[in-house]
Amino acid sequence: MTLPLSGLKVIEFSHMVMGPAAGLMLADLGADVIKVEPVGGDKTRRLRGAGAGYFPMYNRNKRSLAINLESETGKRIVRDLIRDADVFIENFRPGALDRLGFGWDTLSELNPGLVYCSEKGFLNGPYDHRTALDEVTQMMGGLAYMTGPPGRPLRAGTSVVDITGGMFGAMGVMAALNERHTTNRGKRVTASLFETTVFLVGQHMAQKAVTGTPAAPMPARVSAWAIYQLFDTRDGEQVFVGCVSDCQWVTLCKAFDLEYLLDDPDLGENRDRVIYKDRFLPQIEDKFRSMTKAELMARIEKLGLPFAPIGKPEEMFDDPHLNAGDGLLDMEMEDGGRCKLPALPVSLDGLRLPLRLNPPKAGEHTEEILRSLGADIGALKNDGVI
Predict the structure, then answer these.
(1) Quick check: 356 and 9 in contact, CB under 8 A?
(2) Does residue 324 sit within a domain?
(3) Range of 242's domain?
(4) Is residue 73 located within the same domain as residue 190?
(5) Same domain (yes/no): 75, 170
(6) Which of 40, 205, 240, 287 has the most CB atoms at less than 10 Å from its CB?
(7) pLDDT exceeding 90 applies to what percent of the chain?
C-alpha cells in the first residue's frame, strides 16, 4: 500500500495529547515523523492514571530522537534536520520555543518552505496568554455545560478537544502543503483548544440563533426525535434505540404488535410524537423490557433501526467488527507487552492505514537519524548531547 504522505518529513516537538495527535495523523498517512525528546524521554511516557495511555496511543509510526537541546551541538543537529523538513509541529507554551531558538521566525528563515504547526490553547485575542488544558476549555467553551446535567458541568469522557484540535492542526498542515505547490513557501498554522471547543458546540449556538431558546444540557434536552433513548431489558441491561423517521415509526409499531398506535392521528409525524410521548412510550418500554438485551438487539438490527449496546472502552479489544476490519493495530509496548489500539478511522480504497512502527522507546532511532546526518555518535555521547 502506497501511503499518501510518503516522502514527507515532519519534525515533532510535542508532548501529552494535542501535538502528538497531530503528528500521529500525519504519521499514519505515511509521513516520516521524527519525535524530538529530551535525553530522558518525553515525560508523557511516565504518566499514570488517566494519562497512562497517552503515549502508546498517539506516538506509533514515529521515530524517536532523544537529544539534549540545552547544548548548542544538540540545537545545531536539530536545525540540520529541520533544514530540509516539510513540517514542524509543537505544542509548548507561547514563547517557549522562541527562547530555545526554534520559533516560527527563526525556522521560516532557515527553511522558507517549512509548514510550522503550533497547537495552542487559544488563537489570537485577549486569552492567548493563558495556560489551557483540554478540561479548561471544555469548561469555558460550553462543552462541559452541555455534557453534564443542569448545575453539574462535566467534561467529556475522553480528551476530545485535544484530539480534535490535533486533527484541525493536521488539516491545516495539509492545506498549507497543498498551497506550497504554487507558492513554494511554507506557512504558520495554529490550531487551538478553546476555538476547537467552541466549534464543537456551534450547533447549540445555532440552535439558540434559530429558536431563540438556549440549548439545554444534553441530559435535560428535549430530543428532536420521539424515540431516542436508553431502554431497560429483562436481564438488567440497557440498549439505546433511535427512531428518526416516520417510516421507522411504522416499522417499529408493526414489529412489536403496536399497530394501534398508527391509528392515533396525533402520532402520525415525529414532531407531534415528541409532544405526545406519554401516549406511547410506556408501551414501548414494556415491550422492550420483556426481552433480553441480545433478543432486543437482534430484533432491532433485523428491522434496520438505529441501536447500540452500552459499550465500555475495554470491550473494544474484542469487538468483532473492529477485529474483522483491521480497525485495531497490534502493537508492542515499551515494556515489551502487546496491545491492540485503534487505527486512524479512515480507509483508502477500502484499506485501513497500517502500523509501520511501534510506539518508539525513548531515543530508539537516535543513532539511525544521526548517522543519516554524518554525525560522530561516539563524540556526541561523550559530550552528553545524546
Answers:
(1) no
(2) no
(3) 219-311
(4) yes
(5) yes
(6) 287
(7) 97
